[in-house]
Amino acid sequence: MRKFVSNTASRKLGLLRHLAAASHSRFLSSTPVLDLLSSMPSANPPAAPPLSLDTINPKVLKCEYAVRGEIVTLAQRLQQELLAKPGSHPFDEILYCNIGNPQSLSQLPITFFREVLALCDHPAILDKSETQGLFSADAIERAWQILDQIPGRATGAYSHSQGIKGLRDTIAAGIEARDGFPADPNDIFLTDGASPAVHMMMQLLIRSEKDGILCPIPQYPLYSASIALHGGTLVPYYLDEATGWGLEVSELKKQLDAAKSNGITVRALVVINPGNPTGQVLAEENQRGIVEFCKKEGLVLLADEVYQENVYVPEKTFHSFKKISRSMGYGEKDISLVSFQSVSKGYHGECGKRGGYMEVTGFSPDVMEQIYKVASVNLCSNISGQILASLVMSPPKVGDESYESYCAEKDGILSSLARRAKALEDAFDNLEGVSCNKAEGAMYLFPRIHLPQKAIKAAEALKTAPDAFYCHRLLNATGIVVVPGSGFGQVPGTWHFRCTILPQEDKIPAIVSRLTDFHKGFMDEFRD
Amino acid sequence: MRKFVSNTASRKLGLLRHLAAASHSRFLSSTPVLDLLSSMPSANPPAAPPLSLDTINPKVLKCEYAVRGEIVTLAQRLQQELLAKPGSHPFDEILYCNIGNPQSLSQLPITFFREVLALCDHPAILDKSETQGLFSADAIERAWQILDQIPGRATGAYSHSQGIKGLRDTIAAGIEARDGFPADPNDIFLTDGASPAVHMMMQLLIRSEKDGILCPIPQYPLYSASIALHGGTLVPYYLDEATGWGLEVSELKKQLDAAKSNGITVRALVVINPGNPTGQVLAEENQRGIVEFCKKEGLVLLADEVYQENVYVPEKTFHSFKKISRSMGYGEKDISLVSFQSVSKGYHGECGKRGGYMEVTGFSPDVMEQIYKVASVNLCSNISGQILASLVMSPPKVGDESYESYCAEKDGILSSLARRAKALEDAFDNLEGVSCNKAEGAMYLFPRIHLPQKAIKAAEALKTAPDAFYCHRLLNATGIVVVPGSGFGQVPGTWHFRCTILPQEDKIPAIVSRLTDFHKGFMDEFRD
């Protein structure tokens, strides 16, 4: 026992305590204590931990993701404080307007979708009599149809790497019905939400920091984050706030040429339509110009179309880039196009299900094989998400038992979102020094705040961006969480924040009043 | 209409056909056909597609994933041929023994788990009277408990980036019960299966090809694939087939030193326990040596423990590396350890649910923040998978209504797997020139085939690896899909294949007989 008089005595005493506490546990049964001790080094100096910020992958360090950044960490802390000590803040709940997460703000799921998911999760109840009383007839029928599309009806098995073939058939049919042009199930890759699909494409496209991806500014930070993680260069193009976040092909060309002259090979163009965080819906004419540009410049068009169901103004309609390309006569051999879709958005907002797909067209068979291989390394996306993606692209139809209730739920949500967008837009627009474009689509408003110099200086003194300073003050005063514009990118010297349109309708008046009061106080404090 | 007499006439005629077919569709309603045509370029030469194998990320090209590689593509083709033309092959079904996917081979899910998942998917039925007749009382109670742990009971909302806190509490309690040492829910990251967790750690650790990861050979190709995709170097250490795939610390040290002398910074050690594809279960003494080695050499220990429930021999017990480290007196500050767990394996085999977690211990708070950030970029893992991960770590207990049926289902599966492992192992061992170690755990056998020179030469003539040659012949003759050892790595000059132990028990005799006949014929054909 001499060994214990060593400089590692205290660690070993700790061990002894563990041993005493665990002496009857399973793991010690076959191992005498002394053997255990004798296998230990007697005086190993404690090594430095193998990982520090200096030694992790610098691409990880570089990556930023504002939507769940510092402000959300602060919000979570405040929420815990409110829970532990009610009344400790001038508000009694945290209102998360930072993220497009409808069901976290009490939006209910679409009944038909959930019925089918539950039945596919537990098919053993499908032919029980009680099931008829609990589930609608078309949900039961749809569950049988889906199970029949799955080899062995095994919803617990890995599927084909691209997703269950029968579900891809349904999705392809849904795309055809939407676009009026053919869709091939073999072009569809089902994914756990749209994010992994975006990562997959960035991984394929980016070889080094000399490869650039044209991205809108402001952009959804998934793009900046995934480009950073894969070691590429984000080539920004600016949306024109003055024309309702217009996307000008001349700006694309200007930025492409600038990138080229800096030695960057631009490989792809990201377009988010409807826009995130900017909410604009592109006009067809504009989309045709974008397609033409990609074709001419040899760029892959990465079309983020996850908000395709979220359009709130009668004068705008969503058109997929695939439909636009095909309507221009461009087929498989003319343009490389990836369309991203997600079950997290739309009227259903099933974020937690992590379903989505990408439709990959205009790539050569050998490149498609490489995409298939990368998909295979992760085996497959979750089957519930796959099923939900098929339901979203093939909801109940006229004559189905659920059709009316489905339409009522869907229209109720979409029309309420339109009203909420308008109410919040008007409220922002009425604030001193704030201007706010319409949310024609998506789930966000991105108002511009003209901050007084005094506020900008106060922010600088705290080494924080002026819009982040504003958002922190807003959170601390009202419990409302919004994301500073600097997390999305903006024209230098302008300041914005992103606010979802998702708070429940009956809460909007109180939110508007809290916002207005805060803003007035802020301006009074900092007015030049 | 003069334009149509151009060299792009045929493409435009294709367009005209589209327009005719779609002339009543929504997209044309606001767009006169001639406008559409006039916006087309008149004679743009067709540009080369933006992507080819020469211009994609070479890391993607380099990555290989044998488990779903060429042989599976061939199997899928044969399956389609059988479907289109029954009797076209000397077998009437394809038997997928290439992948640990139990439910694809008719294993049924655990009833209690599926009841809870279905109820969480469709909570609206929880308080209906029919539900009592369809679901067990403890499943209903558990569903309520889980819903109460989810803010707003919203199973359709994004969760915390690490997963729902209440579920992480349950998992941490399960780890504590398993190990007899504390577990912190803040160390747990819920993921869509174990694969994304492994990617996340590789992304964190690998800065360039100068960073190495020590991996067993043979290994599960997720590791070689993710190291290739993230641009690092796989530093192999060989498991000793002669001692039942023994893992020698002296071999680790030898390979580490060799890597160092080649300018590689080795950052982590991957250990798969129970082994995949090799099926061995590590002894405690061996695990202590491995922990000591990582500590001494400053390596992160990446412990793939997804087969922790799959141990089939009475003389071996699974011990987590965390328990081993803690029992040696090593705490948070002594060793950086990541344990991967998945709902895809175990007795439940819920591959399609894509649930899993990693427990990350011994990292500094600022590095943990970086891991959190990377997790946040993908928002969260799917909620059904999160719920299932909590159920797996906290199944029904004595006294619960489902307890007995749960135990019967679990024990039935595990004891059958043990019998199947033994039957297949014996069958392999009886084949001429084949030797096969025990599957002490996991779901695989990895028999060695001593191939005749003539077979090796025949393979070489076809530019294929000799074990791939054998596996292709096996598939074409019997419909049995196994993976060539070359997909996992093996001592040069030795040949193996991986075969799962998952075919249903009543099929095993037929499989053994098909295998035996094939092998005999193969050896007769190629015997030197």
Describe this structure in words.
- The structure is a homodimer of 528-residue chains.
- Chain A has 528 residues and is α/β, with parallel strands linked by helices.
- The first copy, chain A, has four domains: 2-38, no CATH class; 62-106 and 409-526, Aspartate Aminotransferase, domain 1, CATH 3.90.1150; 109-157, Helix Hairpins (Orthogonal Bundle); 162-392, Type I PLP-dependent aspartate aminotransferase-like (Major domain) (Aspartate Aminotransferase, domain 2, 3-Layer(aba) Sandwich), CATH 3.40.640.10.
- Helix content of chain A is 44%, strand content 11%.
- The first copy, chain A, has 19 helices and 14 strands.
- Chain A has helices spanning 9-21, 33-38, 58-62, 70-84, 111-121, 129-134, 137-149, 165-179, 194-205, 221-229, 249-261, 284-297, 321-327, 365-377, 383-392, 403-429, 453-461, 466-478, 508-526; strands at residues 95-96, 188-191, 211-217, 233-238, 265-272, 300-304, 337-342, 356-361, 434-435, 444-445, 448-449, 480-481, 483-484, 497-500.
- A seven-stranded mixed β-sheet of chain A has the order 2-8-7-6-5-3-4, with helices on both faces. In chain A, strands 10-14-13 form a three-stranded antiparallel β-sheet, covered by helices on one side. A two-stranded parallel ribbon of chain A has the order 1-12.
- In chain A, strand 3, helix 10 and strand 4 (233-238) form a beta-alpha-beta unit.
- Residues 1-46 of chain A have low confidence and may be disordered.
- Chains A and B meet through helix 1, helix 3, helix 5, helix 6 and helix 9 of A and helix 1, helix 3, helix 5, helix 6 and helix 9 of B.
